[in-house]
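[09:14] KT: can someone run the structure on this one? pasting the chain below
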Amino acid sequence: MDLTKNQNIHLTEEKETLLITLQAKAIDSRSKHSILHDKKALEILHLIDYDFEKVNHFGNEIMVIRAKQLDTWLQEFIKKYPNATVLNLGCGLDTRIARINPPSTVNWFDVDFPEVIQLRKSFF
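[09:31] RB: done, structure tokens below
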């Protein structure tokens, strides 16, 4: 799938929820007081043609705060265990690896449904 231009995304069931967290992180990155500073999420969001009104009623702030806490815990863990293996289950379009920027000694695996991983490959 070539996503150099806006493409309509068709995800079903639980797979579609990845757009909720993506939107929350993108909205945060536009904030004057951004928590995550996740410009990659905003970049990806701009490439997707999707009716985000369907997911606007979720608590974006809570998702962003949760992501920040997970980032902090993971950074602390990697500092303590620099040869760790990270398994990001249900990764969706998560950009955590870009925010964390782990050392090359860390093995990182983003895992999700095959169609989500295929979509992910369009952006990373």
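[09:33] KT: thanks! The beta strands are 7-8, 48-49, 85-89, 107-111.
[09:34] RB: yep, looked fine to me
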